[in-house]
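Input record, target 12 of the design panel.
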């Protein structure tokens, strides 16, 4: 079996389902994990699914993905708009990186319209709620297949 797809989520995503459901929906992060696992399994992949509110921990996982993952799906949450350190970690990763957002940042506040992560991402999926994660996993798997 090939290496797994890493699916990493940033700060406050542990509150999915209760935090601003009018923006982020009613599904929990555990629901999102189930969607990602099912989509990855249907495509012949496993996933490593993690969430952290801590920038350094996300960076550690991104660095781990350099050797352990075939692709990386990252919802950086608020760190996407602020973290040059996450950008630098992503630049050191030689696997496809798909940036993922539940909402459509381009349709929200001005400060959300640009992310540092996008500078290193192969592609971006946003605005489809929990389905953004499923679509990002599918895109990541497709990018891996293109490399074979």
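The sequence produced for target 12 reads:
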């Amino acid at each position: 079996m090939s290496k797994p797809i890493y699916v990493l989520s940033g700060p406050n995503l542990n509150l999915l389902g209760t935090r601003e459901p009018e923006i982020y929906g009613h599904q929990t992060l555990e629901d999102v994990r189930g969607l990602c696992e099912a989509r990855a399994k249907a495509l012949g992949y496993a996933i490593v699914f993690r969430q952290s509110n801590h920038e350094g921990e996300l960076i550690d996982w991104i660095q781990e993905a350099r050797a352990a993952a075939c692709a990386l799906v990252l919802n950086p949450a608020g760190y996407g708009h602020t973290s040059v350190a996450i950008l630098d970690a992503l630049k050191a990763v030689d696997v496809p990186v798909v940036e993922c957002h539940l909402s459509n940042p381009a349709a929200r506040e001005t400060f959300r319209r640009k992310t540092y992560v996008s500078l290193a991402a192969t592609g971006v999926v946003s605005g489809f709620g929990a389905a953004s994660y499923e679509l990002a996993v599918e895109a990541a798997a497709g990018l891996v297949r293109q490399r074979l």
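The first strand starts at residue 5 and ends at 9.
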